Amino acid sequence: QVQVVESGGGLVHAGGSLRLSCVASGSIVSILEMGWYIQAPGKQRDFVASFTTGGTTHYADSVKGRFTISEDITKNTVWLQMDSLKPEDTGVYYCNPYVTTMDMKRRDYWGQGTQVTVSS
To answer: Average pLDDT of 16-20?
Structure first.
């Protein structure tokens, strides 16, 4: 089994910053990709940012230049630095690691999410 735990959410004023953390643990052989998604109230879950172990990063257009994803593969940890936050960044942020497990299968997992609220 793989466990995913996010942390770092909270309430912040527009223009402020937050740093989210995600740690994946359990029967992981390797992490292929780790991503962040947002689910705003009443909306579908949308992509925010991701990185691959090859070093490639991707960002949603709405967060480019404001959010930065970084990682420490040795610790199965990924961070999302969120600057210049806007009210539309409000939602539950989910971490989504795509891993190879000890039974040599590849699949992705989800954490329980961490709430980010940006007030105007």
So the answer is: 98
